[in-house]
Specification:
Largest sheet: none
CATH superfamily: 23S rRNA-intervening sequence
Number of strands: 0
Order of helices and strands: HHHHH
Structural class: mainly alpha
Distance between the termini: 51 Å
CATH class: Mainly Alpha
Strand content: under 5%
CATH topology: de novo design (two linked rop proteins)
Helix content: 55-70%
Length: 146
Amino acid sequence: MEAARSFRDLKVYQAAREAARLVFENSKNFPCEERYSLTDQMRRSSRAVKAMIAEAWARRRYKAAFVNKIDEALGEAYETQSWLDDALGAGYLFRDNFQHLDERYDMIGGMLSRMIDRADDFCKHAPGTDYRSIVREEDEPLFTDH
């Protein structure tokens, strides 16, 4: 298996991105009165899962920071499942749509838990963690003489 060169290469990121898309699609027909409560919260938490994975990738240089961000992503996944419970209970989701989304978030949660357990594998020195290898738009000095 080829090593991931970007957070976009991670299967868990791809799964979280697709799950967030499905949450968005499934919540389009929620009642207007839920727009700023259930709908907004569910969409926000579902998108936060993938965002936290991307943040964790950027913090691989420090294992504790990496684990913290993956743990936050796991928390957002569980929060999304909680909002899905509410949507099902209110009759806004069909049971089969709920089960499909809930199973996706169970799978994502398992992947995130394995990432925490195997954090050392993700935090090893790699070209992406060597800040000297990051492409910069300009090679101007960081400090100037005044």
